[in-house]
Amino acid sequence: MHYSGESGDKPGILWMNAAFLIVTPLLAITLAPLYIANYGIHWAEPTAFVVLWFLTGMGITAGYHRMFSHRAWWAPKPVRYAMLILGAATWQNSVIAWSASHRYHHQHTDTEDDPYNIQKGFLWAHMLWVMVEGKRHDDFDSAPDLKKDPLCQWQHDNYMLISTAFNVLIPLGLGLMTGRVWGMLLWAGLIRVVVLHHLTFFINSLAHMWGSRPWAADESARDNGVLAVLTLGEGYHNFHHTFPGDYRNGYRWYQFDPTKWFIWTLSKLGLAEDLRRSAIDHRLRRRWKRMREEYAAQMDEWSESMRQRVESAEERLEEALETMKARRSEWSRKAEKVQEQAREDLRAARIEAEEQAIEAFERWREIVEEQGELEPARV
Ligand SMILES: [Zn+2]
Ligand SMILES: [Zn+2]
């Protein structure tokens, strides 16, 4: 698919994109039942579908999204090549075009300048924005770093070739091994591309409509565990919009985020570097602010003594967060330059400050929660 620029007042239809996004699902839902009814299913076909879904999906979530759009991690050249080839194989445009739109989406969420603005409805955010002329930003000005990156530019220039070659050659090769070329072209090619399209599109549509907002309520992005399962971990979208530079979207160890586990595994193998995490004090501040917003309506009804308890808990929390920030900056200023023992001391001080801040936050939370439980879905 390629995008053309804005022209005139009347929005035109981008025929190539529209045809692709309409014809491929129609072909998939007609050809798949026909083929299966006549020839059955070879075990290798759904297996290839799942494996290639995972790998090309990683090209988008770990590659296009978390690495190239947000620089939340980085990798040696061969891994970047692999990410660019796998990403191209999903037919979601070149990394430069994808990331440029995505960065505008983050910068201008819910406004006219957001290419997939959810305020224009589910269908617009889901796929119409690809098919109809709108705010296009074809200069890719939000991705100057990627335009300068020779690897990304190579992928941009050869995008059609790479995506076509992958989607024909890989299923063809697998099909020759099973002796069922059409079966593989269907499962590992067509069905995978269509399924991955719509699961990716859900992040721009459903993940801006359905779920909770524990981190920020001033924009539409939501956290949704069901969507996380369907999208290789991208469903924690409220967190992601709040901390886009974090290589994780489900930041807690138990939150379902295969993309995070994939990147972490690569790093253990020496194939990924510079994995970035949001700072704990930033997260605590966010949650604090967000929960305070939720309680704002009730606060007027609190007794004077309750108000005082909350206030002093907040003072302690503020202090703990400041201490934590100081310990962290001390660590990053001095850790490299000092002897081992001094470095251990700095680390211990930093960790202790973290623990105290978390404790102060929990204490504050306990006090306000005595006044009544919050709807868990809302925070
Ligand atoms: Zn979003
Ligand atoms: Zn993002």
Mean pLDDT: 91
Our count of domains comes out at: 2
How would you characterize the largest beta sheet?
A: none
* Secondary-structure element pattern, one letter each: HHHHHHHHHHHHHHH
The number of helical segments is 15
Give the termini distance in whole angstroms.
38 Å
Count of DSSP strands:
0
Enumerate the spans where pLDDT stays under 50 for 5 or more consecutive residues: 1-8
**Ligand list:** zinc ion
Question: Strand portion, in percent?
Answer: under 5%
Helix content: 55-70%
Molecular shape: globular
The computed structural class is mainly alpha
Please state the CA-atom Rg, rounded to the nearest Å.
Answer: 24 Å
Provide structural commentary:
By secondary structure, the chain is mostly helical. It has two domains: 15-268, no CATH class; 280-369. 65% of the residues lie in helices and 0% in strands. It is built from 15 helices and no strands. The protein has helices spanning 15-39, 44-69, 77-88, 95-107, 122-131, 144-148, 150-157, 159-178, 181-204, 225-230, 237-242, 258-268, 280-299, 304-334, 340-369. It is globular. It starts with 14 loop residues before the first helix and ends in a 10-residue tail after the last helix. The model is unreliable at 1-8 (pLDDT under 50). One zinc ion (ZN) binds next to helix 2 and helix 4.
